[in-house]
Amino acid sequence: MFKRTGLRAAVAACCAAAFVATPAFAGAGSPGAPGAGDPYFPEYGNGGYDVAHYDVRLRYEPKDDHLAGTTTIVANPTQDLTAFNLDFALPVKSIRVNGAPSTFEQRGTELTVTPPEELPAGRQSTFVVEYEGVPSAVEVDGLNPWIRTADGALAVGEPEISAWWFPGNDHPRDKATFDIAVDVPEGTEVLSNGVNTDTSTLAGRTTWKWRTTKPTATYLAFLGIGQYEINTKPGAFGQPFVTAYADGLGDVEGAAKASVERTPEVLDFLSGLLGEYPFEAQGGVIPAEGLSFALENQTRPTYSPKFFAKGANTSVVVHENAHQWFGDSVSVDTWRDIWLNEGFASYAEWLWSEQQGTGTAQELFDHYYSSLPADDPFWQIAPGEPGPENIFSDAVYDRGALTVHALSNVIGPDALLDVVRTWVQDKRYSTGTVEEFIELAEQRSGRQLDEFFQNWLFTPGKPAATPENGIPASATRAAVVPPKSVAEIDATHALVHAHH
């Protein structure tokens, strides 16, 4: 759905604005890098500072998609900075750095800020950005992930969305905590991450305040604005369980609720496999329109109603909540590492199917391995190096899950569980690479796995049916009757893949 390449090289430019004279720096500082150096998207994110906290304050008008905002960023320079970049697409009115008006230049989603004084490394700084615009009208390099609906909007997307509603360091390497406050006309609801700390109404307008106290990647911060039925009750582990169902869901409302309301049960199941749930709240959001995919927004996945068109679908609930560990708590270090998100979330669906008695993980492995012939294009994408154009391909999800189960066959399910639990604990609130995971798997299992991972993750083509590849003889025979869960999993993945 979204074009992934060339975002930061956009030709579209916003006018530059200057508020102070060009500063003269006495130190030996330098500008921060305009990108985080991601091999697939080199200009995503920025260098030279780490964000600790975002305070995002917005006023939004559903009738015309007008958004006015002030975002305060608390950051720690990692070098002596004479200038730095933020990722942001909307028109900027002013920027203050440590209280001082600062010059800036905006081109596409690259917002370059020059403070009047050099920012010393290690000394906390504050950036305040004031802005105003219509997000749905701002396109950069043919891209606009903001979703306008009849009664509001959705800020939901991967790997980019934040630049259309708050300025920041838009790469999973730089996580931060968030306070998000949105002022809307009375009678309009606002959903975001974490816990609802306050909702107040004055003079016909309501302000909704949300807070997440755990490190959050920018693309996992979200907004849902419109007409929603919001329910808050105790969930798993005694945490707030917040669900929101849009008005107008029609015939799918029952199936949607029958699925998303099982989130606490799903989290209980997943925590038994993966260890302690890493966040402070849980839930789910289902808009009535505009969304054709699901996304693992931290603490509050958002689902298209299309997932429930044929009835209840717990597979997608399992998938998005497994991402709370694989993707949200432990994020990709670069977008090349996306198998670590999608392969494990997809495999969690297989384990849920086994627990529910609708097909074992081995039966699902046999089905997918045998049903795709060696000349199918599916096998030509390597999940460990898919390329920027294929980071959300079927192979990353389904061949990714096949890889995880094959690893279980090679090292044993107990050893796999040990590897996974160690990974999510050691990398909690951080990032990881595929190579680091491979190294951990070898350490914890005591097995040399280079050839195994080379065949499954890095080599185009269907892995040979050998014990060394974790493929039993049963996998070479087409299943006479596919596991009952296959239709639900396939429907889930068809929609999940479509949005990327």
UniProtKB/TrEMBL annotation:
EC number: 3.4.11.2
The keyword Signal belongs to this UniProt entry's keyword annotation: yes
Keywords: Hydrolase, Metal-binding, Metalloprotease, Protease, Signal, Zinc
Boundaries of every Peptidase M1 membrane alanine aminopeptidase domain copy: 311-456
Cofactor: Zn(2+)
InterPro entries: Aminopeptidase_N-like_N, Aminopeptidase_N-like_N_sf, Peptidase_M1, Peptidase_M1_aminopeptidases, Peptidase_M1_dom, Peptidase_M4/M1_CTD_sf
Signal peptide range in chain numbering: 1-26
Reactions the enzyme catalyzes: Release of an N-terminal amino acid, Xaa-|-Yaa- from a peptide, amide or arylamide. Xaa is preferably Ala, but may be most amino acids including Pro (slow action). When a terminal hydrophobic residue is followed by a prolyl residue, the two may be released as an intact Xaa-Pro dipeptide
The keyword Metal-binding appears for this protein: yes
Domain spans labelled Aminopeptidase N-like N-terminal: 53-220
Domain of life: Bacteria
Pfam families: Peptidase_M1 (PF01433), Peptidase_M1_N (PF17900)
Membership in a protein family: Belongs to the peptidase M1 family.
The name this protein goes by in its record: Aminopeptidase N
Source species of the chain: Saccharopolyspora gregorii
